[in-house]
Amino acid sequence: MYAQTVRYDQFGEPHEVLKVEQRLIEPLKQDEILVKMSARPINPSDVIPIRGAYKHRINLPAIPGYEGVGTVMDTGPFAPRSLIGKRVLPLRGEGTWQEYVKTTAELAIAVPDSIPDDIACRLYINPITAWVICNETLQLSPDQVLLVNAANSAIGRLFVQLSALFGFRVIAIVRNARYTEELMQLGAWHVIDSSRVSIYDAIMSVTNGQGAHASIDSIGGPGGLELAKSTRAGGIFLSLGLLSGVQVDWSIISKELGVLPQLFLLRHWNQRVSVSTWHETFEKVIDLVQNGKLLLAEPEEKFALHDVKEAVQFAENRQRTGKIILV
């Protein structure tokens, strides 16, 4: 059987290197399942590798996409036949930007019928990252202060919501005041518009000159360094992304500021946790989503898989406000 797939044979700009092709689906291995995909989001983490940021660990040709949802159509001889017809997240196998995806049965995450595809396809990258950081990496005590820049992003909104569950306080940093009301409603302690005020001055004012106990940087560059300067000595500076494309100066953060810099990579957590912990973590996050305690915003636009180039360009438009979904 042949099926539609998106792939790239060289690194470069997505609109130049992405190809939509027909791919032969090979027979399933013993513990594999075959999933017919119904929805996949476009995340920055999907697009960055296409440009070659991780070329040292990506073998070409490659298929993009780290998450999505679909229905199990077939199983290998050692995988449970009872999975056929079930909706799952086929994770840590093949790239999800294709019509059919193979992965091992033990890593597939069952999805309750009450969660629609538009939400289910986004239950991995951002929600699991946010949960692990709050629950395992930072472990902030009630009333301790966490700084989050790019707080209007999908994962920024999750940190704000999780602060209510864990009891810590979030100072949300944005570049546009239009996000203030929404973030306050989601649970932010304070919202700072960096286009109008100095981040450092505003945070010192809010924290009585003490600075935050921890900070999460998704931007890097000068913006990330400003966040680190607003973190108290002995606090944690967690690098999560590089929206600016520029690394922060780690030596300044650790040696001059006395702040503890850390890099969070979800794949490192994946590698060290057991299969049971993998499933237990998803169960907790899915329960929060089902009960309305963790809200994922409605997607802004949907594109057919064969329109992937247009979809990626739309996803990288700074004016958009929601996720783009490939269907």
From TrEMBL:
Alphabetical list of CDD domains matching this protein: ETR_like
Keywords of the record: NADP, Oxidoreductase
GO terms of molecular function: NADPH binding; oxidoreductase activity, acting on NAD(P)H
Start and end residues of each Enoyl reductase (ER) domain: 13-326
Keyword Signal: no
Pfam family, one: ADH_zinc_N
Identification of the protein by name: Zinc-dependent alcohol dehydrogenase family protein
Organism: Brevibacillus brevis (Bacillus brevis)
Taxonomy of the source species: Bacteria, Bacillati, Bacillota, Bacilli, Bacillales
